[in-house]
Amino acid sequence: xxxxxxxxKVLEAQKNSDIASLYVLEQNAHDTFDxxxxxxxxxxxxxxxxEKLTDTLEAHxxxxxxxxxxxxxxxxxxxxxxxxxxxxxxSDASALFEVLSGLxxxxxxxxxxxxxxxxSAENINLDDFMSKIADMDATQDAGxxxxxxxxxxxxxxxxxxxxxxx
Length: 166
Description:
It is built from ten helices and no strands. Helix 4 crosses helix 5. The protein is an all-alpha fold. InterPro entries: TPR-like_helical_dom_sf.
């Protein structure tokens, strides 16, 4: 695919607020665009996701993970929260994880995000979260876009959080 064709497809997807199509074009974008253009590509996905988040919250509804645009939106927002977590901005990551944990109709996703939220609220850094709380091998086997499998340590953290919250 030529650069012009890819840019036209990206522009069309953006015009239609089609986050899912942008993710379909992601590999082509990586293969074709320079770093600056690629960052713009991801910034556009995030802008669309934040717009959809606002619309969802204003409509007092949850996102349906079986609906392709909602799924793609949740992925984009999760990646955004993980970027905050990775950069050490743990309180902003925690706030996003909290919102995301209540935003989906998918119980497994919501439950997984509660572990993210509690760990970040407890000021556990990302490296410790991934090595002590998350079960990365099981997550890989599960094939989810988010960290979905956890160690026994995670249950202890959840139990402690529920005790502290009482």
